[in-house]
Design brief:
By secondary structure, this protein is α/β, with parallel strands linked by helices. Helices cover 29% and strands 28% of the residues. Strand 3 (14-20), helix 1 (25-36) and strand 4 form a beta-alpha-beta unit.
Length: 243
């Protein structure tokens, strides 16, 4: 607990470890939310499985501890995940955030962090799990596309979705243009979900259902189009009472 200026006690920020493999733009959105106080978190460490990526520079510039665990140095996926778990646990996080971490995780890893492991995926799940989501949306002739934040379970990109943002697919879009528009929305929705979790509003229940404010989400919350002059937009959700 930390005292406020008025002497009242407030909960300590939630300890977070972020896993990356690349440029770390979603990491930067989380760093910004931490620095502005929009999310009550303390990013303890940023871990990359790829040396020398831009995301490590972003973390270092913010004074956050960094580590590299190169998966190429491990002969088996299970051995890498075991070493990664030990490294993560050394920072004692309450939440592990996958932010462009390009590794398929073993069931043992997922079980170890079940209920405190989040991912963001560039599609409107359950559409297009896996890779090349933007090209697949274009090939299917979709009129809209987007991104989803979800709890991680053992099924690839199959954990319960929490929050989505949608973007229109424009007639002249290519995969790169569509990806850029989706990425902008990722930067909105990921800090929001982390804030919900850190504030105690969001949890994964024993039946692997996402609960927000004590209500089971029957569909992901939808973030409306970006408003002007509003810091935190209202969200629309469908839910049922928790049992």
């Amino acid at each position: 607990m930390q005292p406020t200026a008025e002497g009242a006690l407030t909960p300590d920020p939630l300890a977070v470890v972020v896993l990356i493999s690349g440029s770390g733009s979603n990491l930067q959105a989380l760093i910004d939310a931490q620095q502005t106080g929009d999310a009550p978190i303390a990013i303890r460490a940023v871990i990359s499985n790829v040396p020398g990526v831009r995301g490590l520079e972003r973390a270092q510039a913010a004074g956050i501890s960094t580590a590299v665990l190169n998966h190429c140095l491990f002969s088996e996926r299970a051995a890498f995940d075991s070493a990664l778990m030990a490294l993560i646990d050394s920072f004692d996080p309450g939440l592990v955030v996958l932010a462009g971490f390009m590794r398929i995780l073993t069931p043992a890893f997922v079980r170890h962090y079940l209920g405190r492991l989040l991912n963001i995926h560039p599609s409107l799940l359950p559409k297009y799990p896996g890779l090349h989501t933007h090209a697949r949306a274009l090939a299917a002739g979709d009129s809209e596309h987007g991104a989803t934040v979800h709890f991680v379970t053992e099924k690839l990109d199959g954990g319960p979705p929490i929050l989505q943002a949608r973007v229109p697919v424009l007639p002249r879009d290519d995969a790169e243009q569509l990806a850029a528009r989706v990425l902008k929305q990722e930067h909105r929705i990921y800090p929001e979900v982390v804030r919900w979790f850190a504030s105690g509003r969001l949890r994964l229940d024993p039946e692997n259902r996402a609960q927000l404010d004590g209500q089971v989400l029957t569909a992901p919350v939808e973030l409306p189009p970006e408003p002007s002059g509003t810091k935190t937009p209202e969200v629309r959700c469908r839910h049922e009472p928790a049992k």
